[in-house]
Amino acid sequence: MSDLTSLGPTTVPDDGLLFPEESSEGEPLALPGRLRALSAPRIRSRAPRRVAVTPPAALLPDEPGLFPWLAHRLAPGEATLWTGTAPALEPLLELVYAGSARTGHRISLVEGANRFHPYRIGELGRALGLDATETLHRIRLARAFTAYQLVALVDGWAAEVRRHPADLLIGHDLPALFADAEIPLEERQELLRHVARALAGLLREVRAPLLLTLGPGGFAEFPGLPDEGPPWCDLVTFARGAGTLRARSLRSDARLAVVPRPAGQHGIEEYGDGSPEEVVAWDVPPRRTVRRSRSG
Fold first, then answer.
1. Which terminus has fewer CB within 10 Å in the chain: N or C?
2. Which CATH number does the domain housing residue 205 bear?
3. Is residue 248 in some structural domain?
């Protein structure tokens, strides 16, 4: 997946595929109460807030252009949720691991699905000009193998970050282990609600952005997260289209597409409520054609 490191602006057609939170008529599906406000501009309180050690935009490099788009959707003391299938999410998540290391920051990761691939992440670090070993040393990983282990890890996460400070917290597919048929449904729901409350407590103590990932089911996979979990920065849905990887940010209603170019290059573009036919990249000078047209 190292080819994602060559992203740049391009012209992007909207293939018209629906995101999981849209109905067949194109209307948004109902969202939990605390998340409806994300689609409108947020009004921040004037009360003083503790300043984060690391500004969100500095968490990732300025290039390629995908990094600022992702970093803009992270905020200290708030959670950002990514939803989508593993093939859509995980290459970008691995790129975030490498990009954060490239800017000299540290990640505290709780892995709930046992899908951490150090060799791929190390190769991405090399593609960004960083030694693979240094890339991995900047990720402090806690991996759970049972649902009860994961509960214990999240309960102790704040103490862990106090001992080993991190600039970005990531919880990868935390509900995955709770799908075990041996865990009764009522206990499963109560445990996940406990985890949601523990995440809220974590961000009250640790002023760092929290990135959570879930599968296509979104909040249905994590009872308690919308209503009892941490305050929200954004919800970003990823989906694969025809030759594209598409992302939709709920808070700003911004969309992004990664599309293939000739010669192995890629491009990205952000768009909102403009033309559904085509979006032309900004700050891109007109291109001269190779062949000149001739009259007659």
1. C
2. 3.40.50.300
3. no
Which residue range(s) make up the domain with 109? 2-9+52-240
pTM: predicted TM-score of the whole model, two decimal places: 0.76
Residue 263 lies in a domain: no
Which pLDDT tens digit goes with each residue over 179-221?
A: 888 899 999 999 999 999 999 999 999 999 999 999 999 999 9
